[in-house]
Amino acid sequence: MNVPFCKFVALAALLMSATLARAETVQVAVAANFTKPMEAIAAEFEKDTGHKAQLSFGATGKFYAQIANGAPFDVFLAADDSTPMKMEEELLTVPGSRFTYAIGTLVLWSAREGYVDDKGEVLKKGEFKHLAIANPKTAPYGLAAIQALTRLGLLSALQPRFVQGENITQTYQFVATGNAELGFVALSQVFKEGKLSGGSAWLVPASLHDPIRQDAVLLAKARNNAAAKALMDYLKGEKAARVIESYGYGR
Amino acid sequence: MDASNLAAVWLTLKLASVVTLLLLLLGTPIAWWLARTRSWWKGPVGAVVALPLVLPPTVLGFYLLILMGPHGPVGQLTQSLGLGILPFTFPGLVIASVCYSMPFVVQPIQNAFEAMGERPMEVAASLRASPRDAFFSVALPLARPGFVSAAILGFAHTVGEFGVVLMIGGNIPGKTQVVSVQLYDHVEAMEYVEAHGLAGGMVAFSFLVLLALYGRRRLGGWSP
C-alpha cells in the first residue's frame, strides 16, 4: 500500500471519528399518541443539533416490558406519568431526569361531520351501536374516558357498547373506518395546525378527568449519551413547545 | 385463574371449534377441486388460499376491518340484510378466522387427496359406484389422516391467532376477548402473574397439540 493512500485513509478515519463524536444517535421510545408531534420535533432537532433521533412508536406498557428487559432505548416519552415513576423506583432511569413534556387533551370524535355536538349531548341520546375507547387498564386516554363517563353518570349505560382499542391509535382506527360511530381519542390525532382535520368532535372538559400527564425520562443506559441529553433539553425548549401546542397538547 | 381469564379461554375454545367445523366443510370441496383439477385456475386459487401463510395477520385484519366496515362491500351487504356490521361481533371473528386458518386446513386435505392418486376412484367407478358414493366411501376414508391433521392444525392455529382478532375484535369480554388478546392485555398492564398463567397454559396446550400430531405419525397412525 502506498504512503499517500495510507495518509488519506488515516485522515478520513480521523474526520469520521470527529463527526461521530459530535453527532450521536438517540433511540427514542415514543407513546403512540405522540407520534405526529414527535416526528415534527425530531426533524427540527436533527436540523438544529446534527444529532440523529431514531423513533419507535408503541404502547407505554409494552415499552416498559421491553426496557425492563434490556431494550436499547435512550429516551422514553410515555403516555402517562405512573409508568415513568415506576421505572424511576426500579432504577431504570437517570435520577432527576423525569419531567412532564405534554398534557394530553381528550376528545370525543366521530369521522362523520356534525355527528358529535360541541357539548357531548350525543352521548346522552345514545343513538349509536359502538363507542370506541382505549383500554383503560393500559392507555391513559382510556382511563380518562372512563373517568369522564363516570362523572357524567353515563358509564353503566354506555359500557355495553364499548369497543376497546389496544392503544389510542387502534381506537382512532375503529372510529376513522366508521366501524364505531364515535370514540374517545387524543386531540393530537384529529387536530392539525390549530383546527380539526375532519369529522366532528367535543373537547372533553379537563374538569371531567384527572390530567393526562405525559412524562419523559432519560434511561439509565443513556447516562453518557450526549444526543439523548440534548433531546431531553430540546423537548423543554421553546421550539418543541410550539409544536406540542400546535397539536392540541397542554404544557 | 380469574373469571375473565376463564371467559377468554372458553370463548377461544368456542371460536376454534366453530371455525374448525366450518373449515372442514368449506375446505374439503376446495381441497378436492385443487387436488383433481387441470384448470388454469388451480394456480391463482391455490395462491389465494395460501395468502394468510405469508401476509402479516395485521394486514389481513386491517383489510377485513375495511371490507366489513360500514363503507366496505361486505359491510354494505350485511347492513342491507339488516345484520349490521361484523367487526366487534363473534360471527365477525368466525369469518375472519376462517379466512386466516384456511390454508392450514385445505393443504393437508389436498395433499391427502393428491397422495391417493386417481386409481382408487377409477376402481370404484369400474365397480359401478357413483362419483358421490365413491367420494364418501373411498376417497374420504383414504384421506382420513389428512383430515385429522387439518382439524388439529386449524383448531390450534385459530387458538393462537392474535393480529386479526386484535384488529377487528374490539376486545369485548365474553364476545371478542380471546386468550391471545387477554394475554397481551395483561402484559401491557404489567400484570405479569396473570400473564404467566395464560402464557404457560398456551405453551402446554400447543405442545400437547403438536405431540398429538407428530406422536400419531410415529405410532404408525397413517392408515394405508
Can you give a write-up of this model?
The complex is a heterodimer of chains A (251) and B (224). By secondary structure, chain A is α/β, with parallel strands linked by helices. Chain A has 2 domains: 3-103 and 213-246, Periplasmic binding protein-like II (D-Maltodextrin-Binding Protein, domain 2); 106-203, D-Maltodextrin-Binding Protein, domain 2 (3-Layer(aba) Sandwich). Chain A is built from 11 helices and 12 strands. Chain B has 224 residues and is mainly alpha-helical. Chain B has one domain: MetI-like fold, CATH 1.10.3720. Helix content of chain B is 78%, strand content 0%. Chain B has 11 helices and no strands. The longest helix of chain B is centred in the first third of the chain and has 34 residues, at 3-36.
List the defining traits of the structure above.
heterodimer, A: 251 residues, alpha/beta, D-Maltodextrin-Binding Protein, domain 2, 2 domains, five-stranded mixed sheet, 11 helices, 12 strands, B: 224 residues, mainly alpha, MetI-like fold, 78% helix, globular, disordered C terminus
